[in-house]
Amino acid sequence: MPLAPVEVTVTRDAARSPLDLPFAVTRTHPDSARPGQRQSSLDETLALLPGVIVANRTNPTQDPRIAIRGFGARSAFGVRGVRVLRDGIPLTLPDGQTPVDYLDLEAVGSVEVIRGSASALYGNAAGGVIDLRTADAPANPIALQLRGWSGSSGYRRWVGGVGGRSGVARYQGHIARTETDGFRQHSHQEITSGSGRVTARVAGTELALNGIGFHMPVAENPGALTAEQLESDYRMADEFNVRKGARKAVRQGQLGLSASRGSRERDMFATVYAGGRTLDNPLTFAIVDIDRATVGATLRGSTAIRVADIPGRLSAGLDIQSQRDDRRNFANCFDSDTAVPAVSCPDAGNERGMLRLDQRERISSIGPFARVEAELGRYRVSVGARADNVKFRVEDRLIDADNADDSGERTLSAVSPMAGVVARIGKLHAAYANVSTAFETPTTTELANHADGTAGINPDLAPQFATTYEAGVKGIALSRIRYELTGYASQVRDELLPFEVPEGAGRRYFRNAGRTRRRGIEGAASTIVRRVELGAAYTYSNFKFVNYTVDSETYDGNRLPGVPQQQIQAYATWRGRRAFISADGVIAGSMFANDANIARAAGYEVLNLRAGGTLARPTAVSPTIGVQNVFGRRYVPSVNINATADKFYEPAAGRVVYAGLTIGVGR
Fold first, then answer.
1. Assigned domain for 394 exists
2. Rg of the Cα atoms in the chain
């Protein structure tokens, strides 16, 4: 079966074929290629992407750890080093962090990914870009869907959906309720969420309104384990986390309005968005309370040009973002002796003790960018650059005789250029090469945490800079095999790395490594043979310290922790007229858990199976059954890098069995 052409928009241009772009760009349709997923975590959505490693930490307070070419592996929570968008609207905050716990994955129809330094396009990210695209709304006037899931560890999820067309508008919405006792002890979670999208074409302009609402009243934090705890009982929770009542509660809302207009010759896109988030987060070392507000806007456009009879394209735009966090930290008195009040826990029975930090944090960013492309026969040459300016300001509100004024500000800026060339080889193949740069600031939390206990903005923690050289080939072989193969080399200066201190009670701090080096190979292929769709992705990651010394210990030549050196993923899906059977698996190598390369998580092999079908129409009744980790392997997909007390390991769930039933009307 000949493969359909693919187009992407993640390169901030009109829809283009990946064969015309000098980047490692991939577009995938997760539920189409691998049906039967519960859509409960991004490790399902982002599977089978070369160079992308997503670790489900089986900790409901922690987002999956997403790393592209190793960037993002440092994340203690949320996503770092990678820009995340939803339908072109940035979800990443101006300081570079991206909470993804609130994302509605039910409506994701496709995913577009740029692997490699994308700062010339998006700024403040070294790893790449992930754009989650919402599936098209049904063409019928109205379509209804109800879906229920039940599975191991008390997993229960109910989803209601509606979509359709009314005049020039299309609409869709989902509301969901999720509850789980959790695979590990002390990992209960409850979520109520909703999302909606309305699109309309008015006078040649496509308008889209997107909204998200999210409430997670409880998510318990089991923490990471030592090797001895892992061997004894990998379901257990860390005793200190249980004793301190570690958990979090979140409310979040976001609204975005976008407008797009144009054709392949000329196009424009504009969006404005705003959101709010409240966080109540008891940790082992403190209770963190955050009230956040964010706003932002993007304006970009592109047009075909001709200079000296050379056809080309000019793209330019501007991103503006602002973030305000009201942050308060209290002593955690969850386990305090109510009969013996302490200075930090004076009120018997009150979980929140002494106020230790009270400050308003403001982060603003502005980034103009431009790219020029010239067509020289079968070659397309691109050059571009972006100028980023990120400003951090802290207003200290806890000032008294014992607390000095730690207010301050800091501005981090950089210009990130890139250049690339792509050569078409016939109609279905292309070879490309590029050199790109990346600029990545520490996040607000990373700048605020001082290992010496002082407050304010850390003046010594620097942004990291990366330069990447990349070459690859991509195309469609024999009209039916889509493939891509990429090799790259990156030099990183002042790499941001996490560490802990013995008296820090698990708190994460950050420092800069002198220099690191990354060498990698990424490959992927997929095809459809009659009723069977097959695909595989391979990632080779040779990441090492080049110049890095801590307390007289030299780590030159050691591997960077948190990333396996090799990973292979594959899937096969058979589709009948009204049924499917799908299997996917991963083989991953071992990875180190600390800079010294002493602690290590073993490699693993995991197989997942799913089957389902549709029993009736026009009221479609579709049962699904799935088994994750079929052979019940004990393995560790994620490590807590440079943890104290050897609490490195975040184990995956054992065998997970689940079943679902979907009832749909009108599709």
1. yes
2. 25
The one-letter amino acid at 517 = R
User: How many domains, the chain?
Assistant: 1
Q: Is 401 left (phi over 0), alpha (psi -120 to 50) or beta?
A: alpha
User: Token pair 């040779």 is at which residue?
Assistant: 542
Strand boundaries in 152-265, DSSP class E: 155-166, 169-180, 189-202, 205-220, 247-262
Amino acid present at 302: S
Contact 146, 162 (CB under 8 A): no
Domain hosting 129: range is 18-250+269-284+315-665
Chain position carrying tokens 């993640």: 10
Contact between residue 314 and residue 281 where contact means Cβ atoms under 8 Å apart: no
Question: Which pLDDT tens digit goes with each residue over 36-90?
Answer: 998 888 888 898 999 999 998 899 999 899 999 999 887 777 788 899 999 988 9
- Residue-wise pLDDT for 544-557, tens only, equals 999 888 888 899 99
Helices (H), 322-474: 444-448
3-state class (DSSP) for residue 600: strand
Q: Among candidates 491, 532, 536, which has minimal Cα distance to 514?
A: 491
For residue 231, the surrounding DSSP H or E stretch is helix 227-232
Half-sphere exposure for 584 (CA within 13 Å, toward CB): 27
Question: Nearest 5 degrees, angle CA 216-CA 217-CA 223?
Answer: 80
Question: 130 — phi, psi (to 5°)?
Answer: -125, 120
**Single pTM value for the model:** 0.93
Q: Given CA atoms 84, 390, 414, 419 in this order, what sign does their dihedral have?
A: positive
Do residues 663 and 619 make contact, with C-beta atoms less than 8 angstroms apart? yes
| CATH number of domain containing 345 | 2.40.170.20
Contact 172/209 with Cβ under 8 angstroms? no
